[in-house]
Amino acid sequence: MSERSKNLLDEMMRKRGYVYPSYRMLAEDDPDFLETYDKLYELAMIRTRIFPEKIKELFYVAAIAARNPGDNSALKNHMRRALEKGATKEEILETLKCAFFPGGALSLLYSVNTLMEVLKEMGEK
Prior knowledge:
By secondary structure, the protein is mainly α. It has helices spanning 3-16, 21-29, 31-46, 53-67, 72-84, 89-103, 105-121.
């Protein structure tokens, strides 16, 4: 892996707290593309214009819970970031309840199970 690709992944990890395996492949294959992808993420998620990062992470949690609740790694990453940005367990539960109608009962149940795993991993109840 090139030094540029490694630096890009390190910077993504610093900003997000996670790096998906797919990012590694993209970094090796096309660092220009990944750098642009990361810039869009930064503009949408990190830059504060109206909503703080905590709220944006809750948006992500709702979207993943409704659309793809089986994507445990993404859901965990965004739940963890939401908590780190100041969200409470109750706020995440409220978010998951909002995702219930567009996502269905299984989206709620899978997502609550994922939240329980995250809280356990973070040493919370």
